Amino acid sequence: MESTRDKKRAAAVLAAGGLVAVPTETVYGLAADATNESAVQRVFEVKGRPAGHPLIVHVCGLSMLSSCVADVPEDARRLAEAFWPGPLTLVLRRSALVPDVVTGGLSTVGVRQPDHVLTLEVIRLLGRPIAAPSANRFGRVSPTSALDVEESLTGDVDLVLDGGPCRIGIESTIVDLTGTTPALLRPGAVSPDEIGEVLGKTPHVDSGPPRAPGMLAAHYAPTARVLAVEREEAGDAVGSLVGGDTRVAVMCETDVDALEADIRLDAGSDETTYAGRLYSLLREADRCGVDVVVAVLPRPRGLGGAVRDRLQRASSTP
Ligand code: TXA
Ligand code: MG
Hints:
Elements: E1 2-4, H1 7-15, E2 20-22, E3 29-33, H2 37-47, E4 56-58, H3 62-68, H4 74-83, E5 88-93, H5 100-103, E6 108-112, H6 117-126, E7 130-131, H7 146-152, E8 159-161, E9 173-176, E10 183-186, H8 192-199, E11 204-205, E12 225-229, H9 234-241, E13 248-252, E14 263-266, H10 271-287, E15 292-296, H11 304-314
Parallel strand pairs: 1-8, 2-8, 4-6, 5-9, 10-11, 12-15, 13-14, 13-15
Antiparallel strand pairs: 2-3, 3-7, 4-7, 5-6, 9-10
Helix pairs in contact: 1-6
Residues 133-134, 142, 214 line the site of magnesium ion.
């Protein structure tokens, strides 16, 4: 698997039906030409992702958005203008340009314009949208560097476009605009309050049966067992685990008192840093052969809400 910064080559590989891992501001994506059914089919095979789990379509510009969707409602136009390029995915009614394989047969499609110069240029050169899930095996930790991609998907990708480490480090916010009121399907860097300020109404948290695999339990998980705890519970949780054969890591912010775990994974001193380091710390835990990661949850402000969401899902793994 080869790593490059050559945008033209990446666009050529995609145009020929190949797969390219691409950088975004959130996490790396595993991209195919969204209009090429067999290329998109291969994305599912490489990821080990069950069919029927829709991919996000990445566009460059509002006219490319229009080509992917049946119509652009006023709310979508406002959110795109306010937050694109950026970490916000809009679920809208799809157009005929988007094949069934991308949306898992749904009549809706998730679309976003990522905030990364290399990838935006690749989409522009290709002249078509790209479909890309996070570039990890299904259910595992998302990659936030080119090296992470190479470790996760050894050999199965035609090219890795190396755009450096991801700025945000956690997947985009997903908001569904196809219902009577906007629904938050996945928390991310764009908060419900920020969306509310633009729309004049705050999206409700979707509490129905899971419509997105990112909403399932046992997602975003490393090989080590994750135990998500509040700050006050951390001491007891670590205390009850250390000793014996279990190798215990504690992942927490810098100001959390030294806990007697075997390994300390430093999540930094604020929620934004925690988000940026989250996935690389979980990968590090696996590299160190840790059995349990006691993940001390950040406060629910800023990116803390999205970090809590991912850790609570990772910790549902049996
Ligand atoms: O930040 C991100 O969103 C990253 C980067 C690569 O853009 N992508 C990402 O893709 O996280 P993935 O496949 O790991 O997660 C996509 C999520 C899934 O939870 C999927 O179910 C949801 O988006 N999704 C996609 N289309 C949808 C639709 N039509 N309706 C509901 N959910 C949808
Ligand atoms: Mg994913």
